[in-house]
What does this fold into?
Amino acid sequence: MTSPLLNKLNALDRRWIFLAMALAVLSPILLQIGSDETPSPPTIKLFDEIERLPEGSRILMAMDFDPTSAAELYPMALSFTRHCCLRHHKLYFVTIWPTGKPMIESTIKAVIGADFGSGDRAYQYGVDYVNLGYLAGDAVAISQISSDIRKARPQDARGTSLDELPMMSGVISVKEMDLIVNASAGFPGGKEWVQYAATPKKIPIAVGCTGVQSTQLFPYYPDQLLGLVTGIRGAIEYETMLAAKYPDPYANRSKRPAFLRGGAQRWAHRLMIGLIVLGNGIHLANRYRRTPHP
Amino acid sequence: MSKTVPVLIASIVGCIMIVANFSPFLLPARQIAEDWFTIVATIAMMLGGANLCVHHLKNISDREAGWGFSAVTLISFFITIAVGLLKIGVVPESEQQVKFAWSGPFQQEGSGFWWIYQYLFSPIVSTMFALLAFYVASAAFRAFRAKNLEAILLLITALIVLVGQTRDREITSLFLPPPAEGMPQHVPIADLTEFIRKTFVTAGQRAIMIGIALGVVATSLRILLGLDRSYLGGDE
Amino acid sequence: MDFHSRSPGDKNPGAYAARLASAVFSHVFRGSDSSPDWIAGKARPRRAMMKTLTVLFFLLAIPTLSFAEEIPGATKQIAWFDTGKTSFALLTIAICATVIICTELARRGKPFYVRPIAGLLAMEEAVGRATEMGKPILFVPGIEDIREIDTVAGLMVLSSVAKMAAEYDTPLEVPTSRALVMTAAREAVQAAALAAGRPDYYNEDRIHYITDEQFGYVASVCGWMYREKPAACFFLGKFFAESLFLAEAGNAVGAIQIAGTAETTQLPFFVAACDYTLLGEELFAASAYLSGEPAQLGMLKGQDFGKLAAIVLVILGCLLATWDSISPRGKSDDGQNLPRRSQWITDTVLKGG
It folds into this structure.
């Protein structure tokens, strides 16, 4: 028994799959089709913690990602920073990724520079936020700043001595932080912050990670991780909560990059499901064809 | 001797790292060991750079397959090094610093190196990462086939988690009665996804992590005690 | 006294260090350079454990005594031992001791069964296939530096693969993402070629550094795969997002692929795209398994005892948690909630971990 269609499908060139995926991702982006999400408990916990902390609390913002994973993590980095600025917390930016420094600068520019750089309670460098820059040494760097920040990094990213910055007075190590918020794209990242800083020094930590990392970090939640924001879905959830609490201006689509990326993700998921179903259809048809029939 | 000394260094430094975890007294020693690794790795970067040049020059000279890529690599390598080292486009940043062109940071916004990073490196690596979507689709199409019982279980789980990860999961609640006033709509597949993630995935991950941890212990002991020296080229 | 001579059977530098130290001891305190039997490499089995303990003692004591004094200022205020980590230290010692005991038992000739691992059994087949097809073999030892134990495990396997490849005289390409890994890989392949009796097989141009940048490395390796079409690909080490790129490229060129990583997030991609995958601990067991040395195989058995301890603790924890949920402990006399019974495991047994 032969079927020309089945033969064609059996020999399907994978470039057709690539083309289908390109269309599934491109169309929602070009047509500005977004996707909303209902917040999940691990995301809600981080949001509530930032809300709960008293104004002026010290938050270490560890931005351990690079342009490679920025598509997934940059929207959540923006949301975390926006939320902390809305609550007027003190922000200590740091990265243990050599390519993470521009990510910090970009986040600061997009959030503090655009929304919180002017007005009565404008964020001031060295008073309300500081960029500690890149710390070399991967996990070793985390353990170093857990015991002494100045030993690991005597100056900030601008070359100013940490002792000259008002917000660094009284800050010796990570232990003085009220919360660690980490945007993690892999190694070193969330797992290392839990193992070398948060758990030994007993500091609450929440991690925003890529979708693929979530399975690795879930075992740490909720005991060692206060909150876990995973992938674009987590970023959309966070944006949804931010939009609900601070609708002006965070309900605007222009302030919700994750929402717009969610549409592409949704259609890519649909295509994946379709492909898996099609693959199994081909497989079953082949089995049926090989089975002798009377 | 050429193998014994590295193994002894590995053993002693390894033991320092272990003991320092329990003895605060040894933390400075651990710090020294970590600093030394950074120094050695930095020197090795130069070795890597030299090897990169030799390898690609040889490719070009021998006209090996893909030698054009080697030429592009070398040109990009030297341009990036020159732009970074000469701090092209860098201006003094603040009053505190020396007012010479080189006094600013090499990654300063608007500098040549920043331009390379922002407009070449960043889009290229983002594109590479985005290609994953195509490979995942292709691999899923090929690999998720209901060939046997285990594969069927994997397939069903994958479909549930895929649907559960997007808002399409709400389709599964269309057939349920509307929720009571003020209560959220029950979404069966979302609960199932969470159940799979929290129960099976987490349990499996923990089991693998325990196995890995013990594997690391045994491998580390093999290295610390010098039983296995194959990573250094074996026995003399 | 000749400090540099080593008996032919002495393959253990740690033991050599212990012998050296003991020789110094006997030379200083006995005023003689005659060494005890076991220093001269004639150790009897019952003294093997003592030897190992001596090695461990020296390895731990020398750095402790050398560096402890370097702490500036008041050394007396700094504790010698972090008592909060006592349980964890005891667990570590127990697991290490079990592994060492099993090694010694294996050395004495006690046979241990180690289950066959399909991926490792297929390695020779993969090398043989490449030989038959006249195509090269690709070995990727991950993208992390040599300080990662996964990378070291990958290099240990490289040694075995290189030996097989040298015996068959099949080209082996080892592109690395770190310069230190390249140096170590060259040492491993050169030694493997020597061990195979083919010193001319070693060609250092085939083991080269590409770039530290993850996707730059992937682009280069995948490009090479599409051009050269290797018949066998080995991906053993620490991998991240590049795992699927490499495995899919290998699949596209029709190579037989054996992968292994302890990075749990990448295991599904390797399982989907490769022929054989070493899951987590199997990567660490690979080198011991391939070496076939009793001492190394004994270590794998020691690992199993560690697993047994983990299983016992998990079951105990489950039982205590179930007991807690069936009959909560209630409140103490001063109205405080009594801690859950299962907390004994986390707060006492696993404290400091």
The first helix of chain C runs from residue 13 to 30.
